[in-house]
Amino acid sequence: MSDRSPRIEDMNDRSREVFRRVVEGYLETGAPVGSRTLTRHMSEKVSAATIRNTMQDLEHLGLLGSPHVSAGRIPTQTGLRMFVDGLLEVGDLEADDRRRIDQSMHESDGDVTSLLDRVGHALSGITHGASLVLTPKHEAPIKHVEFVSLSTDRALVVLVFADGHVENRIFTPPPGQTPSSMREAANFLNAIAGGHTLRELAGVISREIAARRREIDRLAADLVESGLATWVNPGEQGERLIVRGRGNLLSGPGEEADLDLVRSLFDDLERKRDIAQFLDLAEEGDGVRIFIGSENKLFSLSGSSLVVSPYMNADRKIIGAVGVIGPTRLNYGRIVPIVDYTAQLVGRLVSDRS
């Protein structure tokens, strides 16, 4: 098997049709598709044995899998991704789906939160999946920040804005964070947050990191020049300052103090890097994408897919997103236009009501 990922363009017509029909059959029924079933639907008359050989080739490429011995085939996650990217035929929005989406928008009052609640409820009902609605990002100055650890790989950031608005966002924290380090990060942010928006606060942190970096360089240079220390991987994320002959430092109290200061500065720099990552994760939004199976890092759910689309304000700036979560055998061709239409409609209505 080649190291290069298989491509639709590399398949011959028969392989492409067998692959497409297996995936479409699986998405429709959720069951493995067998060679005898395909013989009744192929555009050319071929034997079940020929189709089985083609299926085996596709399995060797990592595009199909066989859940049981002598059973039909189902697409792998790689196969589903290839199908979505290269063969998915997105249908037009059905009139009944459009009517139900429009109705959910018009029945809500002037409150944006109420509108988004109804959008989520409508999406769930129409698609029979779970809905995802990310609310517009708030650009007012930050008054208070709080980080709450939910598990080793999930945390909640509570943002209180100067105008009284409160937002909760779930994100994946940088590796190795503890509840204590998160409290420390929040305390630091609250000390400098006054009057700054989230975007501005990220710039303040970047300047702090640069200032610490310069201070470390100056002090460390003195230690290196004196022959007491040497840099390993300078300028990289894993850089270290290795101290030679630590016993000799006992006779130089000034140098010991310098070393302690460098150590303290490194600790400070690492905290600020972590804080900068916290801010990036709290700020980032989702683009128009389909996440399949383990690609869906946001929820860490096995065997699920997410179809998500951003919505924009009048200035064409992404302010939130709507989406649908369900099993990997989602009817992508139907759900993509539903999510896309809903996102466009929400963007217009949120802009009007803001």
Automatic annotation (TrEMBL):
Coiled coil: none
Keyword Transcription regulation: yes
Pfam families: HrcA
Superkingdom of the organism of origin: Bacteria
GO MF terms, alphabetically ordered: DNA binding
GO biological process, one term: negative regulation of DNA-templated transcription
Protein name per its UniProtKB record: Heat-inducible transcription repressor HrcA
Organism (species): Limimaricola hongkongensis DSM 17492
Designated gene of the protein: hrcA
